[in-house]
């Protein structure tokens, strides 16, 4: 294809035909390879007593290899714990009713928390049976409606249809993760692994734990595809349910629950590169290039494509329910799958000769699905290309330069969609973002010569406007934060967390609209920004909050002016991005050898370090992995605590010492000790993903097709007699 034949930008409408294939687990099984390898705990009786009496979990495995049996000393402690139960309890007839079932359910269990119910159900068979009633757990959903893990937006997860086990699982995960994260060293409670039967090069965990979306390839890196996996920790298993082949490696993968033309589903977006001319196929391998490679402005070898696809949840739930209702026989599966049609529908394809990066998918203010992507024109990320997926032309939006920094080139570092405001949240930079120490001496003298304090960084809100074709639209920012000068501490990478609002309520058929009530709205969680800088103790981070939150008060004039009396929106607080470089400097000797990365989350981010100079595309090794504990993020609705923090920061009374942020001697933010995971589990990693809503870490490897899963939250599990019990890991 010649340059004349290839338009600079092309935004295709959705394709009417569906593509891809449904997959049964047996489709990938080789002669001597099992489909699923479960390494999770069996929740034995010994584990349960260890939990009740605060002993270490004797059945938890470590790394990706199954743990050995508990030591004799620990077994002795468990036996001793059992013997501590009063003799009277042993003489009680556990099958004899103690009270009326209604009294137990309505007057006793209704007043207890999750952990107390787990203990009380051991008293008798009657308490056991009553604790399994759906009414016990569904009533508690109302109390925790703003803290529950997300669920798919389908009727299966409505109050009427959700099972007792699923309701209990939501509450157990919520309670156990909150307890486990409130420690100096969070620990994973269970780990397990499954086989993807392909090498995973990128992946996304759908919030809530039901599905994993991955970009995969064969061992020779010649065939590429997108795969959707069902995942359910209760059974320590996962399996592929659908696959869509792609011509080249898909990266910058995104996935969200969204509704397309009335059908709730998973919307998937990714970037891929291809050769602009077939001549280059024998010159280099496009699939082995780094994902963040920025071609030179005059590079004519590559073209880029942002693809958005949709897979309906109704068919996925029908075919992929691993709780036992889905067809297990491959012949039955094939017949039912054929009735569903092909799984994927391409919603749009945005193609360009310029680099495309950082796709974002979300609903707009009216609940319509939207895709947006950064375009690098002549090597500069200066505009956002976006499109309503329900139909209509695409648009290109550019922001006007910051009037105080017109002497410097300005670009976009990161962005996300804020649907409730119909705006883009954009992080911008003015100046050439370079590290002087890594430049040749002649170039270092010229870099940012116009301004020794450059580059500068700040945030903006851009209104999403309807465009008319390909002509770029230039608009003033609706709001702008204070500007942060780098002072030599250059930002190398930026991550943003999801807003956590979930799918548009107008299309949500799950329990969320029911719990919120008529006219109800989910509470606004912070959107966090994580920065990897040249000198940084871990990762520097900041957040935007809703306008009424104490950490957003005394906002800038432009931010206040943009609220228009609406208190349900995000604004820039006075301290947004206002880092003190001195607080970010770590031991120079340490930073000579490692650099830090972030796995963002609105409440429980993870940080990890990698050794400098050793990472390769889709192959790196983690040195340490830590959790970020921040009281304001963990309890964003506690305005009293947030107000105290904001006041201390405003008055200069906050202290940073020993890696902890303190107010009046009380630690309000800190980085945990290194989380103990076997070294072998952190070597030769090709992709890593984190779901902070349920505390699940998923690790893929460059040289094998197995994925390791580490769960930091407990869930209801099955005992040896197949009866659901509360997990033994709530403490």
Explain what the structure shows.
It comes from Pycnoporus cinnabarinus. The chain is an alpha+beta fold and 731 residues long. Among the domains are: 1-34 and 190-393; 44-181, no CATH class. Helix 1 (45-52) crosses helix 2 (72-83) and helix 7 (134-143) packs across helix 8 (164-181).
Layout of helices and strands:
Elements: E1 9-12, E2 18-19, E3 21-22, E4 36-37, H1 45-52, H2 72-83, H3 87-91, H4 101-108, H5 114-120, H6 125-131, H7 134-143, H8 164-181, E5 190-195, E6 199-205, E7 211-217, E8 224-232, E9 237-246, E10 250-260, E11 263-275, E12 302-312, H9 313-320, H10 330-340, E13 344-352, E14 355-363, E15 369-377, E16 380-388, E17 395-399, E18 410-418, E19 423-430, H11 441-446, E20 456-463, E21 473-475, E22 479-480, E23 484-485, E24 491-496, H12 511-516, E25 527-533, E26 540-546, H13 557-561, E27 570-571, H14 581-584, H15 588-591, E28 594-599, E29 606-611, E30 622-630, H16 631-634, H17 639-650, E31 654-657, E32 660-663, E33 666-671, E34 685-691, E35 696-701, E36 706-711, E37 717-718, E38 724-725
Parallel strand pairs: 17-21
Antiparallel strand pairs: 1-13, 2-13, 3-9, 4-5, 5-36, 6-7, 7-8, 8-9, 10-11, 11-12, 12-13, 14-15, 15-16, 16-17, 18-19, 19-20, 20-22, 20-23, 24-25, 25-26, 26-27, 28-29, 29-30, 30-33, 31-32, 32-33, 34-35, 35-36, 37-38
Helix pairs in contact: 1-2, 7-8
Summed up, what is this model?
The chain is of the alpha+beta class. The protein has 17 helices and 38 strands.
Structural class: alpha+beta
For the terminal residues, how far apart are their CA atoms?
62 Å
Count of beta strands: 38
Strand content: 25-35%
Assign an overall shape: globular
Question: What's the helix count?
Answer: 17
- The average pLDDT value, as a whole number, equals 79
Fraction of helical residues: 10-25%
